[in-house]
Design brief:
The protein is of the alpha/beta class. 40% of the residues lie in helices and 13% in strands. The protein has a seven-stranded mixed beta sheet with strand order 1-9-8-5-4-2-3, with helices on both faces. It is globular and about 70 Å long. It binds pyridoxal-5'-phosphate.
Length: 415
């Protein structure tokens, strides 16, 4: 072992300071703990941070993505294109709405979709494409907009005058959604995550860069002819039982009466969660810097070893440095599993992001077969995700690097 003292490094630990603790206590003592002023403040501050007009905070990114589809009127008889290489929520949110998911393989040695195959998958039923900002790196939305513009003649907007129909009619093309569960704070070509797709969802789950325990948010780009307040109001209705007044409005003098507009969902954010988020947001720029420092140390080690890794920053982009994916050249799945165990024996927990969805039972049962996604499989086969979070000390980072080098070196190009 390269260091005498064995460390114990979990895959992730949330970074919660005294500031978050105090803010939560303040909320608990305030007499108002569910959706209320702190949730509204967090929405307002996140919109400023993402440089978008509005943000809606919810209980998860999965709810945010599902409501994004519902707001846009996407549902039964529609197809939604999703990368095969992602977490289940990207696809399941579309399935919850009744849409049919169409998987697209990745480009060779990339987490991004193969844009030629994506263009071929588009037909008259295609209503939406979801791109994933995997690991915190903003995907190629310019390319996606170019593709949907070139396929405009195939697009059939929903008929009618409900909000979803009007959004589809106004855009007049396939809608682009960003699953930015990993990428709050990422930027590309001068734009923040949240500003690039038509609708975006973020995750504030416990393992994410920015957490509210569980939690998530939606934001969107302004749409010609559609009032952002109408969109915001519809999110509120969808997330709170279709109730015409939220709990705070109902306690105003004489305001007990409310209507139920639709038999909808319950996925609001509480003020307890939002209070964690408010202090995370104060600390977030520093947290992003720390992540970037760790990434640059990992990059140096991987480059010396000849191990492939995601590129988290370049001239025109900076990711949120959420996940550090490494790929060991020439190893197979069995060897990858051995390496993960050897690292674990030295106290280093690692992970795999992701086992492609067509390998999972639920998606196999829907008829998908991993043999049709060779690039996604090849990317997965030799992949190990290293721990990357702000609570790692410099000594932890050195320990991960030295043990990773020692364990991985003998495997490189072994097959
Ligand atoms: C790519 C991606 N999308 C969506 C989600 C769902 O996030 P949440 O747990 O907040 O619903 C995750 C969660 O890990 C994810 O990794």
């Amino acid at each position: 072992m390269s260091e005498k003292v064995r460390r114990s490094i979990p895959f992730n630990t949330p970074d919660i300071s005294e500031l978050e603790e105090k803010e939560v206590i303040d909320t608990l003592r305030s007499g108002w703990i569910t959706t209320g002023p702190k949730t509204k403040e967090l929405e307002h501050r996140l919109a400023q941070f993402c440089q978008t007009s509005k943000v809606v905070c919810l209980n998860s990114a999965t709810s945010a993505e599902e409501l994004n589809f519902r707001i846009c009127g996407i549902g039964e008889s529609d197809q939604v294109i999703v990368p095969a290489y992602t977490y289940t929520a990207t696809a399941s949110a579309a399935i919850h709405c009744g849409a049919e998911v169409v998987f697209v393989d990745s480009q060779k040695d990339s987490t991004e979709m193969d844009y030629e195959k994506l263009a071929e998958a588009i037909n008259e039923k295609t209503k939406a494409i979801v791109a994933v900002d995997l690991g915190g790196i903003i995907a190629n939305y310019d390319k996606l907009y170019e593709i949907v513009e070139s396929k405009k003649d195939l697009f059939k907007a929903k008929k009618g005058d409900d909000l979803g129909a009007r959004i589809q009619q106004s855009l007049g093309r396939i809608l682009i959604f960003a699953d930015s569960a990993h990428s709050l704070g990422a930027m590309k070509d001068g734009k923040m995550a949240g500003q690039v797709a038509d609708f975006t969802n973020f995750s504030f789950h416990a393992v994410k860069n920015f957490t509210t325990g569980e939690g998530g948010a939606s934001t969107w780009k302004d749409i010609p002819g559609i009032d952002n307040d109408e969109i915001y109001k519809q999110f509120q209705l969808y997330s709170l039982h279709g109730q015409s007044k939220d709990a705070l409005e109902k306690i105003q003098i004489g305001s007990w009466e409310y209507d139920i507009i639709g038999t909808w969902y319950k996925c609001n954010m509480t003020d307890i969660m939002a209070s964690i988020g408010l202090k995370q947001l104060d600390r977030y720029p520093k947290m992003l810097n720390r992540r970037r420092q760790i990434v640059s140390q990992f990059n140096k080690a991987c480059d010396e070893l000849g191990v492939m890794h995601l590129d988290h920053y370049g001239d025109n982009f900076a990711s949120s440095c959420h996940l550090y994916l490494t790929r060991i050249p020439g190893i197979n799945d069995q060897m990858r599993r051995e390496i993960i165990i050897k690292l674990a024996e030295r106290g280093i927990a690692t992970n795999v992001h992701y086992k492609p969805l067509p390998m999972m039972t639920a998606y196999k049962n829907l008829g998908w077969n991993i043999n049709d996604f060779p690039n996604a499989y090849n990317y997965y086969e030799n992949l190990i995700t290293l721990p990357l979070y702000t609570k790692l000390s410099d000594e932890d980072v050195e320990y991960i690097i030295s043990n990773f080098k020692e364990i991985v070196s003998p495997y490189i190009n072994k097959v």
